[in-house]
Structure formats: structure tokens, C-alpha cells
Amino acid sequence: MPIELHCHTLFSVDAHGTPESLVEEAHKRGVKTLAITEHNNLHSYDRGARHAEKYGIHYLSGIELDAIWNGRQFHFVGLGVDPKDPHLQQLSLRHLAVYTRFHDLVLEEMATLGFSVSSEQLQEDYALRYPTHPCPIPNVWHLRDFYPQRSGFDPTAVEEAFKIATREAKKHPSAPPAIGHFDEVYRIVRESGGILLLAHVAKYFPGDVSAQIQLIDELMDAGLDGFELYHPRNLAEPHFDQLRNFAEAHQYLISGGSDSHSTPGEIGTCGAPDSLIEPLLEAIETRSHRHSDCCGE
Question: I want to staple 176 with a disulfide (CB 3.0 to 4.6 A). Which of 96, 101, 213, 251 is the partner?
Fold first, then answer.
């Protein structure tokens, strides 16, 4: 049976589709275990869980978190987390504030270049871009689509201006809210009862299996629980078998997901075997018990 442990809905700033439509598509494709892993966002959990229960799908809480390691930003999938954990919620809000800050900087740069838009225009477009979302997060991915398609400016001119604005915004002296360091992100996920896995390692070092393995080993030494093996980026690598043998030789915890950002998208197509579910659930249960013990539950 297909599994899906890495996918997104409109609660991720760069994705489309509701939690309900994603769950329905997962059901059509025979997915039996599902985790929706929004970018730095926990707000789709309740809707996804309720709808998955209707279809008899085993639903895991999930989130995809940014984190800094050795001065570089990476993505990590958290599974089995407590979506109500206050520290995890605070981390999520802090990371979302990074999106908003960069969005505001790009808007300022676009205005300087002569491409001003009103807040009313943006608010109206949020309702179209993120239907059923109660409070969309201002973000640069929305602006990237909005300016050439719905701002009223010449698409060619505005696309070139957007490239310039984005480049200049990155140079802005005003520091945005900080993305958490790996140590902080891992600690918060662990204390919320979840496990943390490195996402799509091939994205960071395409074609370089030695660098991929080195990154995984470094993070495992630092406490990481495992890594996402079955992901389209990894599967496309000619050395995927080498990466899989590496995981098996070290008995590392592995996961898998399509990383779909739309519905129907690629839901349930990552090819991850059912056999990886039991070790993941055991690890989550162990972490969850420790979380309950330390919290006195």
C-alpha cells in the first residue's frame, strides 16, 4: 500500500489545494498512512486529521521545518509532533515571520522600481490564491505569481523587476526574524514528542553522493533521527541504490514522500515500501512516551 509522509496544501505558502482535497486524493490512490508536512506551519493538522479519519487513513502529525546547519539552511521533516506544543508553535510562528519580513522587503523594492500595488489588491488575491485559509501568510511566492499574472503591469517588465527586487531585498540591512539552528529545532521537535528527519538530501548536493552521505552522518552525530530516502530528488539520482545501501548498513531511520505541492499532484508516488512505517512508528512512540514522562502526563 502507498504511503505519503511529505506533502503540502495551501497552508504551505508555496503550495495549492486544501487539506480535504489532498486526503481525498490520497484515499483514491490507496494511501494508508499519511502525514501532511506544511512548511513551518501546523495549521492544517486538525482539518487533515478529521478528513483522514473519515476514510480510514492512518494520519500522522507532521511539519517541514527550516533549520540552519554549518551556516546553511536545510529542510527537515518532523513526524509525530504535538501540534499543540507551545514551543513548537512559537518556532513555527517565528519562521513564518521570516516569510512576511522578506515579503515586505520585496514589496518595498518593487515600489522603488515603480511597481506599487495596494494592500487591498493583495488581500483580494489572497482569497483566490489560498481559499479556505483563515489567515494567509504574506510571502514572496505569492508575489512571484501575483505580479506577472494579476497586478495589471506588463508581465515581461514586472518579471524582470521582480528579479531585481528579490536580489536587492536579500541585501537589506534590516535582519529578518531568525531561522532556528538545527540544535534548537531538533530539541523542540524532540520535546514535542516527535522525530526529525533530513528532507531530500539530493536537493542540496545533486549528483554528489559523498557530500550527501557526509551531511547525513554529520547530522546523525548531532542527534538527527534519520533521513528521507524515498523522495523524487533522491530517486532521480543515479546513485540512489548506494544511498539506500548506506541507510541499510547504518540502520538509519528512513521515511518517504512525494513532496507534492498541489492536488492531485504526485500524492502517494514516492515508492516507499510499507516496511519503513513500523520503525518510524516505534521511534515516534518511544519519543512520545519520553515526552509524556517529562511533562508529567
Answer: 101
C-alpha count within 13 angstroms, C-beta hemisphere, residue 206: 4
d(CA 116, CA 110): 6
DSSP 8-class letter at 285:
H
Residues 226-271 have pLDDT tens digits of 999 999 999 999 999 999 999 999 999 999 999 999 999 999 999 9
Please provide the DSSP assignment of 108-170 as one string: HHHHHTT----HHHHHHHHHHHSTT-SSPPP-HHHHHHHHHHHSSS-HHHHHHHHHHHHHHHH
| Closest C-alpha to 216, from 182, 185, 191, 265 | 182
The candidate with the shortest Cα–Cα distance to 177, out of 66, 15, 38, is 66
d(CA 9, CA 48): 10
